[in-house]
C-alpha cells in the first residue's frame, strides 16, 4: 500500500468502518470493500500490546466516487457481522459534534434574505433534503439569521461537513451538525476522546494524557469542558441566542467558546483552536469516528 496523500485532498476518499468482527483483518477488509473501487490503503486498528483488533479500521480509495458507492450500498456485512461505515473526518476537525451520527444540520450566519427554498436548493447536492426551516423572530416574523436542514440519511450530513466551508448567496455560512440537548448530554457521558494517528512506525492511540486502553466505540463524541451548547429556546437544540447580522459576517461570540474560531489549513470551515500536531512521515492521520450501536 502506498503512503497516504495530502489529508485535505484525499479526505473525501476515506472510510471509517466500525463494529468489525474480531477475526476481520486487513486482507478481508480490503477484499470486501474493493467491490466499490480501487483501494490504495487499508488498516485495522490493533491494541499495541496484545495486537488484537480493536474492532474498527479505515479504508482509503483511489477515487472519492468509491466512497459514495460504498455508502449507497449500506448496510454492510463482513465476516458474518454487520458493520458501521461512515466517512472519515479529518484530524483537524476538533469540534465534538462532528463525529455524531445525525440527520440534521445547523446553518448560521445567514443573510436575512435567504429562504428555505434557497437552503433546499443548495444542500440538495449532498443528499435528499426532507425539511429546511429558517428560524423566524416572533415579533417581526423576519429571519434570525440561522436555520435547520434535515436529510433522510446521516451520510448526507457527513458529506456536508466534509464539504465545508459553505457559501450561500455569496456569504459564508456557519454549518455544523445539530445535536439536541439529549444528544449533547449523551456525549458528555462518554469517556475522554481517543485519537488514532500514524507516526511512521505504526498506528497509535492517544488521549490528552497519553495512551489509554479503551474500546474503539467510546470517547469520540466527548465535548471539551469549555464547550457548551447555545440555548436556542423553543426547539430543544443548543443554538439559541444566535443572531447573524444582515451581512452574515458575524460569528456568534459567546462565553462557551463557540465564538472562538480560527481558519486552519483544512478547508473545513471554522474550527476551535487545536493543539499543534507533531509532524508525521505518513500524512493524513485519522481521528476516531463515534460509532453508535443501532
Structure characterization notes:
Residues 1-26, 69-95, 183-232, 253-294 are annotated as: Disordered. One of its GO terms (biological process) is mRNA splicing, via spliceosome. This is Heterogeneous nuclear ribonucleoprotein A1. InterPro entries: Nucleotide-bd_a/b_plait_sf (IPR012677), RBD_domain_sf (IPR035979), RRM_dom (IPR000504). Keywords: Repeat, RNA-binding. With 294 residues, this protein is an alpha+beta fold. It has 2 domains: 7-88, RRM (RNA recognition motif) domain (Alpha-Beta Plaits, 2-Layer Sandwich); 95-201 and 217-294, RRM (RNA recognition motif) domain (Alpha-Beta Plaits, 2-Layer Sandwich). It has 6 helices and 12 strands. It has a 5-stranded antiparallel sheet.
Number of helices: 6
Total DSSP E strands? 12
Helix content range? 10-25%
Order of helices and strands: HEHEEHEEEHEEHEEHEE
Mean of pLDDT:
73
Tally of distinct domains: 2
Region (Disordered): 1-26, 69-95, 183-232, 253-294
Protein name: Heterogeneous nuclear ribonucleoprotein A1
Biased composition (Basic and acidic residues): 1-15, 76-95
GO molecular function: mRNA 3'-UTR binding
Structural topology:
Blueprint: H1 7-10, E1 14-18, H2 26-33, E2 39-46, E3 53-61, H3 64-71, E4 76-78, E5 81-87, E6 104-108, H4 116-123, E7 129-136, E8 143-151, H5 154-162, E9 166-168, E10 171-177, H6 181-188, E11 195-198, E12 203-206
Amino acid at each position: 500500500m502506498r503512503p497516504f496523500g495530502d489529508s485535505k485532498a484525499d479526505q473525501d476518499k476515506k472510510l471509517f468502518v466500525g463494529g468489525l468482527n474480531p477475526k476481520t483483518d486487513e486482507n478481508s477488509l480490503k477484499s470486501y470493500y474493493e467491490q466499490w473501487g480501487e483501494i490504495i490503503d487499508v488498516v485495522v486498528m490493533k491494541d499495541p500490546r496484545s495486537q488484537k483488533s480493536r474492532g474498527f479500521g479505515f479504508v482509503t480509495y483511489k477515487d472519492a466516487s468509491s466512497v459514495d458507492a460504498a455508502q449507497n450500498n449500506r448496510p454492510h456485512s463482513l465476516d458474518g457481522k454487520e458493520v458501521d461505515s461512515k466517512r472519515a473526518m479529518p484530524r483537524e476537525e476538533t469540534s465534538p459534534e462532528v463525529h455524531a451520527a445525525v440527520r440534521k444540520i445547523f446553518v448560521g450566519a445567514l443573510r436575512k434574505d435567504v429562504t428555505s427554498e434557497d437552503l433546499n436548493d443548495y444542500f440538495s447536492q449532498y443528499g435528499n433534503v426532507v425539511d429546511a426551516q429558517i428560524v423566524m423572530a416572533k415579533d417581526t416574523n423576519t429571519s434570525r439569521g440561522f436555520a435547520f436542514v434535515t436529510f433522510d440519511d446521516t451520510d448526507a450530513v457527513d458529506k456536508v461537513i466534509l464539504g465545508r466551508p459553505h457559501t450561500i448567496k455569496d456569504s459564508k455560512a456557519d454549518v455544523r451538525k445539530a445535536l439536541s440537548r439529549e444528544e449533547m448530554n449523551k456525549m458528555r457521558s462518554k469517556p475522554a476522546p481517543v485519537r488514532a494517528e500514524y507516526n511512521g512506525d505504526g498506528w497509535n492511540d492517544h488521549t490528552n494524557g497519553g495512551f489509554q486502553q479503551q474500546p474503539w466505540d467510546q470517547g469520540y463524541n466527548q465535548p471539551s469542558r469549555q464547550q457548551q451548547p447555545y440555548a436556542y429556546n423553543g426547539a430543544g437544540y443548543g443554538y439559541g441566542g444566535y443572531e447573524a447580522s444582515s451581512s452574515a459576517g458575524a460569528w456568534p461570540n459567546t462565553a462557551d467558546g463557540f465564538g472562538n474560531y480560527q481558519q486552519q489549513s483544512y478547508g473545513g470551515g471554522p474550527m476551535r483552536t487545536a493543539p499543534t500536531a507533531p509532524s508525521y512521515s505518513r500524512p493524513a492521520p485519522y481521528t476516531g469516528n463515534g460509532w453508535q450501536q443501532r
